Amino acid sequence: xxxxxxxxxxxxxxxxxxxxxxxxxxxxxxxxxxxxxxxxxxxxxxxxxxxxxxxxxxxxxxxxxxxxxxxxxxxxxxxxxxxxxxxxxxxxxxxxxxxxxxxxxxxxxxxxxxxxxxxxxxxxxxxxxxxxxxxxxxxxxxxxxxxxxxxxxxxxxxxxxxxxxxxxxxxxxxxxxxxxxxxxxxxxxxxxxxxxxxxxxxxxxxxxxxxxxxxxxxxxxxxxxxxxxxxxxxxxxxxxxxxxxxxxxxxxxxxxxxxxxxxxxxxxxxxxxxxxxxxxxxxxxxxxxxxxxxxxxxxxxxxxxxxxxxxxxxxxxxxxxxxxxxxxxxxxxxxxxxxxxxxxxxxxxxxxxxxxxxxxxxxxxxxxxxxxxxxxxxxxxxxxxxxxxxxxxxxxxxxxxxxxxxxxxxxxxxxxxxxxxxxxxxxxxxxxxxxxxxxxxxxxxxxxxxxxxxxxxxxxxxxxxxxxxxxxxxxxxxxxxxxxxxxxxxxxxxxxxxxxxxxxxxxxxxxxxxxxxxxxxxxxxxxxxxxxxxxxxxxxxxxxxxxxxxxxxxxxxxxxxxxxxxxxxxxxxxxxxxxxxxxxxxxxxxxxxxxxxxxxxxxxxxxxxxxxxxxxxxxxxxxxxxxxxxxxxxxxxxxxxxxxxxxxxxxxxxxxxxxxxxxxxxxxxxxxxxxxxxxxxxxxxxxxxxxxxxxxxxxxxxxxxxxxxxxxxxxxxxxxxxxxxxxxxxxxxxxxxxxxxxxxxxxxxxxxxxxxxx
Length: 758
Ligand SMILES: [Zn+2]
Ligand SMILES: [Zn+2]
Ligand SMILES: [Zn+2]
What we know:
The protein is an alpha/beta fold and 758 residues long. The chain has 23 helices and 29 strands.
């Protein structure tokens, strides 16, 4: 007696070796039937003795290929038929899946072994890949995802590659980027004017350049990197000077885990993140014995480390015997990363000495992802290569919405069914290149994901380029308050509904009263929010200038509490103030000239950092806050500064009078800055716990969501989460999308979609 079952599997099950896997699973058990791709995923029909079929059904999800992600698995009974074998049925292109395209994936262990096997026909071939690894998202031009729709279309396969591609038992069955020395792309070394340098081995020659302290632009999966030998101080300094990047940390690529362990503290969770197929940059604590020069990441206890992820990276590192290479995005400061060979030469010729290029076109740029590990949880700082376009899986179906995100660290989000697709890191829209990438990304993602949005969600800030773009579109528009979007983003990835207490802390977000918010406690749902508490407003003297020059914020806070009397304080900050400049700033504040009011938490961090002498001017976003966190003396007592919380017309007002009084007192007593920083962090944490407790007592909410860029601060986020949990709250944080503005578009989309349900 035989039985027949139909199994419908959805999720990421195409382009990841799923059909050959099922084929082997079925034929190994002598079962008959077939498998085909469908619009939702794959459908399998399987027939044989009941216990063998059951065994097949049990094993199927458990042993699925590494890149597959099964989101639903449904089994039906069918009537038996007389098939004699198990077949892979090729569907019409029209029926192929249109939704879930796999992200780009690091080279797999099998391909890596072949890469360095002198007997393998792909020995040292820089584009070796298989169904378990290689480029995907960045080479897709259109759907369905097969070779003619990718940038591999111009490389017809040789007979040997074609045979692998057609053999269901081969690791390269339907591997769209399959290629070899005979038929695939190749690398070249160019000089800074774009002329090919004739040499026997381009990769070896590039390694010679790196060893000599030169800057080499290296074409990767999602764009160009600028590389220098990380152990060469002069080369690092040269790159900083050319890139006009003063102190912002550089990420470094190390050849293997052992090299990473020499440099940084690595526990099991960090190791898993480093070795994951996404191969993100992982922020790790430097060892005291770390041999990497301080210039790579000045004033920072952490280093961004990643392992090689393309065959070309492995060849380059091995060729030069490098222990670490700086690998930073191939761009000028905040512009998008270069992807095209000639574009790279045009934009980077003053930055790089050599260009290691190849002729496999990158169709959509995708920067490296950045994560940090806290406890067992990996948290996204920048969600991009390796993760995009895997959707955030939502609790409920949503209308098709396009959410256009914020201004800095921009991402966009498209929703479809239960999927929210966040784009790769688009970056800062303030520069023309960034803005045009924003438009390209929207168009490209709408095409390959087949989403025609009916609603556009945008930030309320009237000056954001994303907002201006949205307001020109002829669709239903929904404006979303910035911090409401942060909290909704945290709710969405945690599948929450109803109302929560939302603590949203960041640098800048446009408020419904036209002021700059950033230290906010909200009572929020997708449908609505109410402001429950915020920092007392202070002037931001000079607007953007106050963000670049934290000393202005310190002066603003001191003037807010003491007027000009603070100029008599016997503290280093006052002694070192340039009197003429300070006078201009104080007059701006007093006469309310170009001094918008802000409740920003980021600016409060800036003020404290400047006041205690850590940083008066910043060279990159959030530098003062990062260095303030890094200054914390550990371990320490739980002494904390206090804040004064008063009820006001617009929720509670968190006053900073007692905080500044205590800091000034500690400065007069020469208390070390590390101690002051810790007491400041502890004070913030206590204050937010107390406010949450009061809101729970009054309104009965017990769920707290933490969101906003300030939560990239490890000390603050770990402690606040722990203290809230101890106080009995259910605490929800970000893990799939960034807490900062990179995760904003997800919240915008959910809020806009909720509005349409009413
Ligand atoms: Zn592979
Ligand atoms: Zn070939
Ligand atoms: Zn924000």
